[in-house]
Amino acid sequence: xxxxxLILLLAFSWADLFNQEENGVIVLNNKNFKxxxxxxxxxxxxxxxxxCGKCTRFEPxxxxxxxxxxxxxxxxxxxxxxxxxYKEIATEYDAESYPTLILFxxxxxxxxxxxxxxxxxxxxxxxxxxxxxxxxxLSQIEEMAQTEHVFYAFFGDxxxxxxxxxxxxxxxxxxxxxxxxxxxxxxxxxxxxxxTLLAFRQFxxxxxxxxxxxxxxxxxxxxxxxxxxxxxxxxxxxSVNIFRGKRTAAFLAVDPDAHxxxxxxxxxxxxxxxSKVLYAWVDVxxxxxxxxxxxIDIKDKESPHLSIVHFDIHFGMMRFDYKGxxxxxxxxxxxxxxxxxxxxxxxxxxxxxxxKAWYDVTNPTHIYYENYDQVxxxxxxxxxxxFYDNREDxxxxxxxxxxxxxxxxIGKSDEFVLARYDWHKNxxxxxxxxxxxxxxxxxxxxxxxxxxxxxxxxxxxxxxFLLTNSPVYKEKFGLNEDL
Length: 483
Prior knowledge:
Elements: H1 2-19, E1 21-22, E2 25-28, H2 33-39, E3 42-48, H3 53-71, E4 77-82, H4 87-92, E5 100-105, E6 108-111, H5 118-127, E7 134-135, H6 138-147, E8 150-155, H7 161-171, E9 177-181, H8 184-189, E10 196-201, E11 207-209, H9 216-226, E12 232-233, H10 236-244, E13 249-254, H11 260-272, E14 278-283, H12 290-295, E15 305-312, E16 316-321, H13 331-342, E17 348-350, H14 356-359, E18 365-367, H15 372-376, E19 382-388, H16 393-410, E20 416-422, E21 438-443, E22 446-452, H17 459-469, H18 471-477
Helix pairs in contact: 3-5, 11-13
């Protein structure tokens, strides 16, 4: 009897190791990692970190890929592990950046270094080759058209120069899905004059053909423009188009059930607008869209709320709010608001109230994820970066005031740059060896490490710090008695 109970306990303990699943993906930890790894002959593991934005965006794509891989001939199981918590396991497999995908075949690890999208992961896991574009037939195209928000399909010979161009574009674009086909049935059904490119969409016109000859510029332009709905219901792809692309966009936060006419008027305006302004609306009842409302600081605004988000190289993200009663918005109201913004007659609402000392000056440059290296590692300039976090109010106000004063006094200079980096909104990995609410000087002679300001943040302290450590500042501004 005791042996029977022991066997049952062992069985239940073993089962517990595999019952920790989320959306079909086994959740690993330091207790079950080795056992799960040895149990499955083929298993794909996602090493991620909870704070990693790229990991969060990749998670649904990984889950989507896993559903296909489990049903494949190779029966590939999927798992994930919090590499930030279980650092010793991540270190053992050299998973130092996130997300990292490793496929274990009979225990042998193979690292993925392709684009982080589901179709590419599937192709690599099944064939062993990095697949930027997935080969499909007519039935697969028709299936994808029912499930994918938007995807692009190349029609033609994979040995052609046009396909090589297309494949290179797909290789460096992780946010869109790319497929290719030479299936005669697909070419005939969609009247595709190969070589050519088609966009399949679940919005506006469902199938769009590339007009004119296929080339790198024409293909890139087609992909960028045809992936954007005239009126978007905000999703991950729109996030890339707007925030990473730094595009001007009108945002409507609304309860579509309570104000369907407002949404209709917003979208009608979008369809009639031939300017470069994008239009996106978010459902205030949808918890998945709470993050974007918080990001553009309209989470607590009364619904419906209309605003325009605009990006400026010096001022960062700026918001322009509609001041009227948004619950009765007509198409004419929205058109007038957009027109007034374009003419510069709408008062801006700066994203961070505490940064207003910076906004009326010409020198400070706002650093984003994309331009960090371009600004900070510029070997022709000494660069002072203020790494700020608005959750620590007192120091933020003091530093912004003093640096704003400094910026006004020195004006615009190509050799001495003042910049600011929002620690809370950008990945900390871009600001290695720094800490929030710190001022760091990167001289043009040594960009390998910065010199951190130590002090309370008075104007005199900051100026003495620069006189001591910045050759450019000392030469250009050290003898100016007005400073």
